[in-house]
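Quarterly update from the structural biology core.
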Amino acid sequence: MSAKRWLGVIFLVLAVVGLMDAVYLTAKDLLHSQVTCSVLSGCNEVLGSKYAHIGPIPVALVGAGYYALLVGLAGWFLQHMRQSTVRHMKYITTLGLLASVGFVYLQIFVIHSVCIYCFGSAITTLLLFSISYLGYND
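Predicted structure, tokenized:
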């Protein structure tokens, strides 16, 4: 298997992990259920803050859409190996990384609590961004 294909598989796996994380948080939000937070204790404070929704829409649902789009793009790339798909992956992960930086800032400096699931999503996005930019040259 070529290096580009391996990177595509890694990208796909990371996007699926991010999707599972975002779907979990979305389900907990929509069911008005507490999140199990074993490593850090700030999950429910972050997810219960005014920053956890855009109007009535949970931010986690937006994240699920983001990761679902990346899963689709990774699958498309693995089928067709087109550089144009990688460009789309780069643009979308750049937006995701900017959003993640903003959300991490809010957690640390505004809410003063950290959600391990949210932080994990930020790390996943950083890895996806890195793979899309460092792994593929135009």
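The chain has one domain: 3-134.
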